[in-house]
């Protein structure tokens, strides 16, 4: 999008206002307790949590006013809670900085310095958080880093709390077993498509105002500073493992395939403090994330929460997590964990109950409701994940994408189907007439489905794009889920303000590529191989990284790229950064030194690698 998009946004319709009023009448009573918890232990903050070039809460000042009709009343409450930012004392020796990113960063006072838990998404907010805590506890060094799990908002900011020399000098970086594999798979192998879909999910392209991005449910939004992937040095591979870090004993519980493929909870006996990572936060989480990722295991998730209750419930005076605010007191902690456990187990069990009755994922999602005891809690509401798409996730986990109906086994892709639907309805004018009628009736879901066919059949049909955008916008205003709102509103914005076509791929930044291990870097190239272009090409050579001395045998055959440590033919010597520059096109080939008899084969391989356009279309073809 060139410059600021034209502001063609509309107000909430009468149908949207009525939907808000109906929801408000069903919400739990609000006694203000969550606001008390979210402010407890506050020690100070930066004005507007402002971190130049990477993060600021200043644009969200509008949340201090009355709720507008363009925001769901329940999401508005969550947005106000997530706007509380600063340094908080969780318990003596445990500090947390919240509201400087979508995630929290926690600092544990050790014998000599600070142990950092989850250094945010990017370096600049992480550095600002470290500075803030040091202003209170003194200029203590960072003596260890813990990644609770493999999502980028929990490791990407490590260079803001630890320099390259400290990392090279052996700074302990602790993570669950399988962390690196999971981080690379999610954030690199599928990184381009996930990053693009994340622009929809987190509202990064939207204005921050009452008709745009107000909250992500999980936090305010994602920071935009420097992101790095630094490999852990200590793996936690079993529940019950005990580690002493800077004089502090930590007891671990591994929780694979819960909120992330590699995740862990842990307990600090000295502080009576339990970290539940991202497994228990103040909302219903995602069993499937709309940005795209592996489906999560609701049954395992519930099991591990129950195991945490058993392991740590009687020894914990405070429970904190990687998002939102803590809980204090054994009784409150146990009650919170028990209902979070039953939330995921209920969705799992009831989805499969209905599936065994022959209902498909869409049918189940339409009727699934929480029991009164769970519905009465604010922390079970659909601010991030939703009952609707989580039911579909459970169905997918067990039964996959196919619903068993043979009519859905080999459907036409969207453009081909769109053209057929439009023709069957009697042309574009007939589709528009039905779409406008549905819009006036407040049936925005039907507008989106119906007019969406016309948009994909005739993507330059201006009136169709406008009506589709109007429908998505009202659905966004009605959404309780922050990501649902942002998906709808970003789709509306891009339909109204189409991005100009580019003559070459507009690539995402290569920050994580430059800091990941060489083995994973080479692995990431395999998903760039253009199979049709590769054809019968056969290559075998050795990549020697001139800056590290690492050697890898590289083979391309059957249009599949493989590698392994060692030698595999003539050498192509290149630095890691040089190879990344060639892959991304950051420098022309003549400016990157490649030496050795295998250099011709390396260049041949580079010619077969795709460069991904981050800004591919989503809401239109």
Question: Can you characterise this structure?
Answer:
- The protein contains 22 helices and 18 strands.
- The protein is an alpha/beta fold.
- Helix 5 links the parallel strand 6 and strand 7.
- Helix 16 runs antiparallel to helix 17.
Biggest β-sheet, characterized?
8 strands, mixed
Q: Say how many strands there are.
A: 18
Uncertain runs? none
Count of DSSP H/I helices: 22
Could you give the order of strands across the largest sheet?
1-2-3-4-5-6-7-8
Alpha-beta classification: alpha/beta
The shape is globular
Helix % is: 25-40%
Strand content: 5-15%
N-to-C CA distance: 16 Å
Rg, Å, rounded: 25 Å
Overall pLDDT confidence: 96
Give keywords.
621 residues; alpha/beta; eight-stranded mixed beta sheet; six-stranded mixed beta sheet; 39% helix; 13% strand
Outline of the structure:
The protein has 22 helices and 18 strands. It is an alpha/beta fold. Helix 6 (179-189) packs across helix 7 (191-201) and helix 15 (444-457) packs antiparallel against helix 16 (462-478).
SSE order and pairing:
Layout: H1 14-26, H2 33-39, E1 42-44, H3 73-82, E2 86-91, E3 94-98, E4 105-109, E5 114-117, H4 123-137, E6 142-146, H5 164-168, E7 173-176, H6 179-189, H7 191-201, E8 234-236, E9 242-245, E10 248-254, E11 264-268, E12 273-275, H8 298-312, E13 318-320, E14 327-328, H9 330-356, H10 361-367, H11 372-375, H12 387-399, H13 414-424, H14 428-440, H15 444-457, H16 462-478, H17 482-496, H18 511-515, H19 518-525, H20 531-534, E15 539-545, E16 551-557, E17 560-565, E18 571-574, H21 576-584, H22 599-606
Parallel strand pairs: 5-6, 6-7, 7-8, 12-13, 15-18
Antiparallel strand pairs: 1-2, 2-3, 3-4, 4-5, 9-10, 10-11, 11-12, 13-14, 15-16, 16-17
